[in-house]
Amino acid sequence: MSVVAWTEVRSAYMVAKLGTVSAAADTLGVHRATTLRHIDALETELGSKLFQRHQRGYTPTDVGQELLEVGSRADDELTQWLGRARHRQDEPAGELIITALPGFEVTLLRAMIRMQRDFPAVSCRVVTTEQLMRMEFGEAHVALRAGPRPSDPDFVVLHHSSHSLGLYAHQSYVQQHGFPATDADFGQHHFCAGGEVSDHVGPLEWIEQNVPPENITLRTDSLLIGQSAVVQGHCIGPLWQAAAEQDDNLVEVIAPRPDWSIDFWIVTHVDLHRTTKVQSFVHRLKETELDLGVAHRHWPAP
After folding, report:
1. How many domains does one find in the chain?
2. Do 86 and 123 belong together in one domain?
């Protein structure tokens, strides 16, 4: 049905419902002559009279009565649809794609559970990756990232928290290899170093500058893998201070330094940041404490 035909049907329906052209015109906010023109045009198109005209108003014919019945059902359906549409706009629903570095899935999971308890119509997809996904193409709605503050002008960036790293060894490692009391002892020990993304991780930079290459027994871009190797007693490497202090089996080799602190950021795209769904999850993620102990739980004690 064309836009013109829809307008004509709407005018005729309001006359059938209200009984007079004047009442219909007032309700529709148009001139009385416009309503009459719509009725005449629709009757001409249908080849049937919709109303019997008399001094008291307009009485629907059989065809006009059918229009009133169909129009009433359509009016009810549209009213219900508008209510559902407004409700969906106010309450988050649909898929939410969230991403974080490997090892921080539990933090996303805790925020996600709180989100879905409040808004069960939201379905979440969690993606773990070392790379910042292309949020401008909808690859992710919310990202939890670590390191320098993302500088893309299309991103909205909120600070989540800061955490320090130190160099640690497991008691089982110390029992087997001893404790490096001085820098000269590093040549007698095994270390975990970073891969291509170690430039912004203070203790990994320190290892590159102070440990002989032949003493680096493991290289990995995954902080989780490196931490798991330390917890397993395989080597000396960086661990989160807050998590290491909760494990009596870990020995501090080098205490955290001021430049060994890492910032965590919540990142959204500027076009999506103000949507109810993204705002609701960001609010819950900001209130969720960062889980730093995944490596300690991932492996059994050596």
Report:
1. 3
2. no
